[in-house]
Design brief:
Number of strands: 2
Number of helices: 3
Number of domains: 1
Order of helices and strands: HEEHH
CATH topology: His-Me finger endonuclease fold
Oligomer: single chain
Helix content: 40-55%
Radius of gyration: 23 Å
Largest sheet: 2 strands, antiparallel
CATH class: Alpha Beta
Strand content: 5-15%
Distance between the termini: 75 Å
CATH architecture: 3-Layer(aba) Sandwich
Structural class: mainly alpha
Shape: extended
Length: about 120
């Protein structure tokens, strides 16, 4: 490996360590502030399954971590994934946006097929 590649690897590793530290910090704070319940589906958590409860940033900015927890909500893995997918879908330029209709209708010829089935030619 060359020097540039080594520096990049070190930078990526440091960035990942920093993010993990930051996440541990606000996760621990959020778990102390809020009941261990998913804010969407209401699923309750115990120490045994607490790893499945995540901290969601309401404004989707992971660097916005006010100490009062006002930008956080606890969500289970499934609701958290769903929230981020909905956000991505509604964000212009990130794929299909909200309000865009599908262009393919899988049932377009269904009426004709049913007519042919009923017609005993």
């Amino acid at each position: 490996m060359n020097h540039s590649s080594d520096r990049l690897d070190q930078l990526v590793a440091q960035t990942q360590r920093s993010r993990a530290e930051r996440e541990r910090g606000y996760r621990e704070q959020a778990l102390k502030m809020y009941p261990w319940v998913c804010g969407r589906c209401g699923r309750e958590f115990t120490r045994a399954n607490l790893h499945e409860l995540t901290v969601h940033h309401r404004d989707h900015d992971h660097d916005n971590n006010p100490s009062d927890g006002s930008n956080w909500e606890l969500l289970c893995l499934y609701c958290h994934d769903n929230e981020h997918q909905r956000y991505t879908d509604a964000t212009p330029g990130s794929g299909q946006s909200a309000g865009t209709s599908a262009t393919h209708n899988p049932f377009a010829e269904l009426a004709d097929l049913l007519k042919r089935k009923d017609d005993p030619k």
